[in-house]
Design a protein that fits this description.
The chain is 44% helix and 16% strand. It starts with 5 loop residues before the first strand and ends in a 14-residue tail after the last helix.
C-alpha cells in the first residue's frame, strides 16, 4: 500500500519546501536506500535536494518543485519494490528520466512486467517509455526497426525478446546477423578460418547472448545451431522459418543488403533491425540501407519503426552527455557550412553583402 507524503511547509512552496515519506516497512526502506545509500545520494545529486532517513521515514528538503518530484519518485519506487521488483541505482537514474519526461503516469507502466530473467537472475525489462513501446511493438509486429543512438538498449532488448520467444517455444531458433564493416579503422589481415575472421565483428552479439543465459547453455545452443551468429553475407539465398532474426548495426548495410535481408523472412518468423543512423561507416557515396528502408517502408502495414533519443540511454550517465555534445558540434558544423556556402554564392553573384539590420530605437 502506498503512503502519501506530507508536505511540512506548504506556505513556502514557491521557494523551498520539506516533505516526509513514511514507507512503514524496514525492508522496503533499505531497498529504497540501495547499497551504502547510493540511491539516495543519486537523488540528491540529480535533483538538487537533501534526503535524510530515520527508520522507515525519508525526509526531503530543497526547492519546492524538486521536492515534489522526489516525493513522486520515492512513491513510485516504493510501489515497484512492493510488487517484487528490485530497485538498483540505474533504475533510479532511469526513473528520474521517465517521470521527468512525462508520458507515463508511473514507473510501473514502464518497468514492471520483465521481458526475461538473465543468467545472473536479474530481471531484464524496459527502462524508458520508448523502450516499453519498442518491446510491445516486437510482440505485435513481425518486422520492427529500432533506430537511435548507442546505449539505448535496442539490440539488448531485442536479444532478450528473442531468448524469451525461444524459451516459450514461439520460435525454434535465433539468428543474429551483423554486417562486417570496419568502424573507421583498417584492421588488415585477420588470421584463422572464416569464422575466426568474422568473430571480432560479431563479439557484441556474443556478449549480449552470454548475459542472457549461462555460458554452458549458450555454448550448447550455438553448437546445436539453435542460436546462430553470422555475418550478414551468410543470409543470402536462405529462407528463415520459425526464427527470431536480429540484424544489428544495420546503418552499415547497403540498400541491396537491406532488401536481401528483409526478403529472407519466412513463416512464423520475426525480424528486428537495429542501428544508429549517425554512425554510418560505409564508403563515401554509399547510401545506408537503414536510412533508405526508413523512407521506403514507413507506410507499410505490419512494419514498426521505434525511434530512440539520448534520453533513452541506459549506459553510464556521461554517455548521454557525450551524445548531446557531439550533436551540438555536428549542428554547429552544419550551420557554419551553410553560412560559408551562402557567402560564396553571394560573392559569385556579385551582390553586395547585406548590412546588419540597424537596431530599433530604444533597444
Amino acid at each position: 500500500m502506498r503512503n502519501p507524503a506530507t508536505l511540512e511547509s506548504p506556505e513556502v512552496l514557491t521557494t523551498s519546501a520539506s516533505a516526509k515519506v513514511d514507507v512503514r516497512d524496514n525492508a522496503t526502506a533499505l531497498a529504497l536506500c540501495g547499497n551504502q545509500n547510493e540511491n539516495l545520494k543519486l537523488m540528491e545529486r540529480r535533483l538538487g535536494i537533501r534526503v535524510g532517513q530515520r527508520g522507515t521515514e525519508f525526509h526531503l528538503s530543497g526547492p519546492s518543485d524538486a521536492v515534489a518530484f522526489a516525493v513522486r519518485l520515492l512513491e513510485n519506487l516504493e510501489e515497484m519494490i512492493r510488487a517484487g521488483r528490485p530497485v538498483y541505482r540505474e533504475d533510479v537514474e532511469q526513473g528520474i528520466k521517465v517521470l521527468g519526461r512525462g508520458g507515463a503516469e508511473s514507473l510501473q507502466e514502464v518497468m514492471l512486467g520483465p521481458v526475461l530473467k538473465s543468467s545472473g537472475n536479474r530481471q531484464i525489462s524496459p527502462k524508458s517509455l520508448n523502450q516499453k513501446r519498442y518491446v510491445d511493438a516486437i510482440r505485435t509486429h513481425d518486422i520492427v526497426f529500432g533506430i537511435g543512438p548507442a546505449g539505448t538498449g535496442k539490440t539488448y532488448l531485442a536479444m532478450a525478446m528473442a531468448v524469451a520467444f525461444l524459451q516459450e517455444r514461439k520460435v525454434k531458433r535465433i539468428i543474429l546477423a551483423r554486417p562486417a564493416v570496419e568502424a573507421g579503422e583498417k584492421l588488415g589481415f585477420l588470421p584463422g578460418d572464416l569464422q575466426e575472421k568474422v568473430n571480432p565483428y560479431l563479439r557484441p552479439l556474443y556478449d549480449a547472448l552470454h548475459d542472457m543465459m549461462a555460458a554452458e547453455r549458450a555454448a550448447h545452443l550455438l553448437e546445436e545451431g539453435v542460436v546462430e551468429v553470422a555475418p550478414l553475407a551468410f543470409m543470402r539465398g536462405r529462407t528463415l522459418n520459425d526464427a527470431f532474426v536480429i540484424l544489428d548495426e544495420a546503418q552499415n548495410t547497403t540498400v541491396e543488403q537491406m532488401k536481401m535481408f528483409l526478403t529472407r523472412l519466412g513463416y512464423n518468423s520475426k525480424a528486428v533491425i537495429t542501428g544508429d543512423v549517425t554512425q554510418v561507416d560505409l564508403p563515401t557515396g554509399k547510401m545506408s540501407g537503414l536510412n533508405h528502408a526508413r523512407s521506403v517502408l514507413k507506410k507499410v502495414e505490419g512494419i514498426h519503426f521505434a525511434e530512440f533519443a539520448e534520453v533513452d540511454v541506459v549506459r553510464h550517465p556521461l554517455v548521454q552527455e557525450v551524445i548531446r555534445a557531439y550533436d551540438r558540434a555536428e549542428l554547429a558544423k552544419l550551420e557554419a557550412q551553410v553560412a560559408r556556402e551562402a557567402a560564396a554564392l553571394q560573392a559569385s553573384s556579385g551582390a553586395p553583402a547585406q548590412p546588419a539590420a540597424a537596431p530599433v530605437s530604444g533597444e
